[in-house]
Amino acid sequence: MSFEIPSDVQLDPAFCASLDEQDPLASLRHEFMLPDGVIYLDGMSLGALPKKTSQCVSDVVNEQWGQGLIRSWNSAGWMEAPQRIGGKIARLINAHSDEVVIADSTSVNLFKLLVGALDLKPERRTVLIESTNFPTDIYIAKGVSQLLPGIDVRVISVDQLSESLDDSVAVVMMTHVDYKSSQLQDMEGITRLVHNAGALMLWDLSHSTGAVPLDLARSRVDFAVGCGYKYLNGGPGAPAFVFVALRHLQNFKQPITAWMGHARPFDFTIDYEPSPNISRMLSGTPMILSLAALEVGVDLWAKIDPTLARAKSVALSKLFLSILERTLDTGCLKVASPRDPSQRGGHIAIRHEQGYAVMQAMIDRGVIGDFREPDLMRFGFAPLYLRFIDIWNAAQILTKVIQTNAWDSPEYRERAAVT
Ligand SMILES: *Cc1c(COP(=O)(O)O)cnc(C)c1O
Fold first, then answer.
1. Which of 149, 226, 358, 405 is least surrounded by Cβ atoms within 10 Å, i.e. has the fewest?
2. 45 CA to middle of ligand 1, Å?
3. Beta partners for 154?
4. How far, in Å, CA of 263 to CA of 286, rounded?
């Protein structure tokens, strides 16, 4: 199936239902718990709950913890969970199983990678960071520059990358899919450019993993991080993954040298000796309950062809835009994401002067997306649990909210802590 939408086709519920009938991924929706009456377009912020998660976490709590107690570190595979789940993510992003491990949050892993990468390039002291990076990436880089003497962090735009790559640059940090605009960067081309300038490349794949097919081996990526709770459906605050290319591993010194990153934690020696493998990226004790939830989400991806998932996500987003274009005089709505789907990730950002209020009105009507300052509504097209008919219904609700000014009500302007 190609998921193509012919330009002359009548866009209506029957057409959308026909797309659902042909969708080879349609049955995956049954793997998720989705509330009735909700169309969930926020999978890029918090992925939906897989049905098996509840039972799985409950087993880990009641059986493995409750009955097995400390024995479960050995008997229930707790000790290897970070490496085991890391290996499963490695398959999804075409990395070696000894290049990926689960640890901490994305932010903490960014810190570990940046400090370790700077240590590999002691004669170079500049970090280039792209300005559309997720803010946590920029905060971490600035924090590192305050901690380490002589580190200069330069925030640049992607257009300035080429001219900024002088021989002082040690590391370039970029987010692969922009969390706001959804702009997708050319991972392979940019990594090559950075390597040609003698620097190392650190990618943030939080909005990419599970949204677009990734090939870290082919792109010769040095370091990467990614989020567990977005398209991987690992649950709120799920631990993140960290990738270090095998060619760097032996020399890579991460700064949070703690016992779980030690070659033999249970030798309890005074001297720190990093694990020879990717486990050296661990710091403290793995979060077993969170890892259990994450593993369910990651396991769903084992049976899925990422190229097919991507094709469906693109078709969903194209359908959404096509319906809006045909039903709305889109004067007040502007698409802030690339029009070419090959240039964007798994979501679309749409500008509206009162985007926050419009989104609250949508949520009130069962369509959940989110909002980013100053005026961006984000709609995510997670391919595992969305149907084409959902997109039809969501577009109808957005059209109605706009046409009737239903958003124009004080209750929709009140800002919550999480937007
Ligand atoms: C979601 C996201 C993060 C989140 O980092 P945490 O440490 O998990 O809070 C980081 N970077 C990007 C690009 C993200 O989209």
1. 149
2. 9
3. 128
4. 16
Among 339, 338, 331, residue whose Cα is nearest residue 402: 331
Question: How large is the angle between the packed helices 13-22 and 306-327, nearest 10 degrees?
Answer: 180
Q: What angle in degrees, to the nearest 10, is found between the helix axes of 81-92 and 288-301?
A: 30
* Gap from CA of 174 to ligand 1 centroid (Å): 12
- What is the tens place of the pLDDT at every residue in 293-303? 999 999 999 98
Pocket test for ligand 1, best of 104, 129, 136 (most atoms within 8 A of CB): 136
Q: What angle do CA 234, 239, 241 make, to 5 degrees?
A: 100
User: CA angle 245-215-381, nearest 5°?
Assistant: 125
DSSP state of 416: P
Q: What does the chain come to in residues?
A: 419
CA 398, CA 183: separation in Å to the nearest integer? 23
Question: With a cut of 70, which residues of the chain have pLDDT below it?
Answer: 1-2, 329-330
Query: CA-to-CA distance for 345 and 365, rounded, in angstroms?
Result: 26
pLDDT value of residue 329 = 67
Please write the tens of the pLDDT for every residue from 183-207: 999 999 999 999 999 999 999 999 9
Both tokens assigned to 183 = 């702009």
Q: Are 375 and 352 in contact (CB under 8 A)?
A: yes
